[in-house]
Each structure stands twice: as structure tokens, then as C-alpha cells.
Design goal:
Length: 307
């Protein structure tokens, strides 16, 4: 991620980090190759424990190179010589700003407009059904990242109801663990390469030209949104149900099964009886069949709905 607050990583940075994820795990106790900073296997184990305790993220051994490259920026910023020194500081100082920077550094924010596109027609169909029953719809996008996903949801809402349809009040809570990406999402400004998946019609309707190479989300979409930092591991969430839709896509893959189950158990009472939970394509909740039933295509409904 970039060292500049609010600036998401470039495409080249993302691709470089993805390539690093294929690194082979090293034997416990073995030091990493010679680098700018000393980074031992024991340092990686400390990072694993800290990020799991504070964010629920379960790092696999293949993430060692990623952890080094991202946290090395924090060492430079703090003028520290080793990871041991940095981690000692992190644990002893209890500096909330540095804890936030630590978590932001290790949060992966790969996203794009209309990612996993099969979900959006299903969302539109569900919105039409709900609007026939009630005129107020609540949606929670709990991994908003730099905003592409919640704005894709908002465009789907606007396309579904149109300007001539009866008024339907839609609110979208956009949350993320990473404060930097939330700042970018709230600004709603994207370069030309980031909007390639948006149809020309949607780009014209929902964006205005900011300059020669960037586009800004129009106010009519932003009015639906509310941005807030939420850690899914926090004991309390500033979220009120009933929710008609929860988007929690490509988040659970970073948690172990017990943590996933605890989060799903907290989602369940927040969803309306006919609400839907959208998950990522590589996620499944077979370990939570007492809570959620698969509707296919990684869309889930509440088990009690089927009683």
C-alpha cells in the first residue's frame, strides 16, 4: 500500500504483492534473505499473532514476503532498524495511530467495479421484491475498500428503480477496517483505468469528468452512502437492523473457521427475515448451515426463513 494517506496502491504494486504471495514458507527459526531490515521467522510469528488478535486476520506462512514489504514502510517511517524493534514499540507504546497504520498495512484491498458481476442481477431482483413490500431498504457493504463495490451496489439500486419509479429510500452503510481506503471511497474519484468495467451509459449517468484522466461519482449516488470504520472483531458494531442485504465478499477468506462462524452468528440477527448475504466466489459457509442456507452463486439466506 502507498505511504501517502488515502492513496490506494497502484496496479503495479498490487500485481507485485500478488506475485509475492507464492513465496515458499521457510523453516521455523530460519532467517529471511538479506534485506534492508532484519526480519526473522519469529518476527513473522509475532505479526501473525498481533494481526489475528486485533483484526481476526489469519496469515498463512506464504504471506511472509507480503508482510515484510508492507511493514518495511512503517519501519522507515519510524526510523527503526529491525522488525523486533518495531514490534516491541507497537506492543509497548499502545499508540492508536500506529496500531491503525499497522492494520492498514496488512489489509488487502484488491477491488474493482462490478467485481463478480453475477451478483448484481441477483441484487436487482431482490431489491424489486423488497420494494414491493416496503419503501425503505438498508444495505451493509462491510468491506467497502476504495469504494468500487458500494458504488457498484448504488448504481444497481439506481438502475433498478430509475427516476420514474415510486420513491424508494435506500441507505448503504460502507465500512472497512482500513481508514485509508475509506477516505478514498468517500471522495469517490477514480482514474480512467479504474472505471473500465462500467458501461458507457452508467459512466455518463453516474460520474462527472473530474479532469482529463479521472471521474467523480455524482451526488445522487453519494447521497445513499454512509462511510464508517468497522472492525468485524469489535464487540459492538454501530449497525442497526433489519438489513435487507449484507455484502461481505472476499473477507471471510482472511479469517479461520471459528472466527467466520462468530461473525456469521452476529450477521444473522441483523438481517431481515427475507434478507440476503452475498459472499465471495471462493467462500462457503458449510460450517454454518444452522445459520445460513445457500441460494446458489455464493448468495445466502437465513435458515429461519425456511422454517
Amino acid at each position: 500500500m502507498s505511504d501517502l494517506p488515502g492513496k490506494p496502491p497502484s496496479l503495479s504494486e498490487r500485481l507485485a504483492e500478488i506475485r509475492k504471495l507464492g513465496a515458499v514458507a521457510r523453516n521455523p527459526g530460519e532467517s529471511m534473505p538479506v534485506r534492508e531490515f532484519d526480519f526473522k521467522a519469529t518476527d513473522f510469528e509475532r505479526v501473525k499473532k498481533l494481526i489475528y488478535a486485533h483484526a481476526g486476520i489469519s496469515l498463512s506462512p506464504t504471506k511472509q514476503d507480503m508482510v515484510y514489504s508492507r511493514l518495511a514502510r512503517r519501519l522507515r517511517a519510524k526510523s527503526m532498524k529491525s522488525f523486533t524493534q518495531y514490534l516491541d514499540f507497537l506492543e509497548k507504546s499502545r499508540d492508536p495511530g500506529e496500531w491503525e497504520a499497522f492494520i492498514n498495512s496488512l489489509t488487502t484491498n484488491l477491488t474493482s467495479f462490478f467485481r463478480e458481476p453475477h451478483h448484481f442481477p441477483l441484487l436487482a431482483e431482490h431489491l424489486r421484491k423488497v420494494s414491493a413490500i416496503r419503501k425503505s431498504i438498508s444495505i451493509w457493504c462491510c468491506a467497502a475498500s476504495t469504494g468500487e463495490e458500494p458504488y457498484s451496489i448504488a448504481m444497481t439500486v439506481a438502475d433498478t428503480f430509475g427516476r420514474s419509479a415510486p420513491r424508494v429510500e435506500v441507505s448503504i452503510l460502507c465500512s472497512d477496517l482500513d481508514t485509508n481506503v475509506l477516505t478514498t471511497a468517500e471522495k469517490g474519484i477514480y482514474t480512467r483505468d479504474r472505471v473500465l468495467r462500467i458501461s458507457p451509459e452508467q459512466l455518463q449517468h453516474y460520474f462527472s469528468k473530474e479532469d482529463a484522466n479521472s471521474y467523480a461519482v455524482r451526488p445522487e449516488l453519494k447521497r445513499m452512502m454512509r462511510f464508517k470504520r468497522i472492525n468485524l472483531l469489535d464487540p459492538r458494531w454501530p449497525v442497526q437492523g433489519p438489513l435487507d442485504v449484507i455484502f461481505c465478499r472476499n473477507v471471510m477468506i482472511y479469517f479461520d473457521k471459528p472466527t467466520q462462524y462468530r461473525i456469521l452468528a452476529r450477521f444473522a440477527p441483523l438481517l431481515a427475515p427475507d434478507g440476503l448475504l452475498f459472499a465471495g466466489h471462493s467462500e462457503n459457509f458449510l460450517h454454518a448451515i444452522d445459520l445460513f442456507h445457500s441460494e446458489g452463486k455464493t448468495v445466502y439466506s437465513l435458515v429461519r426463513r425456511r422454517a
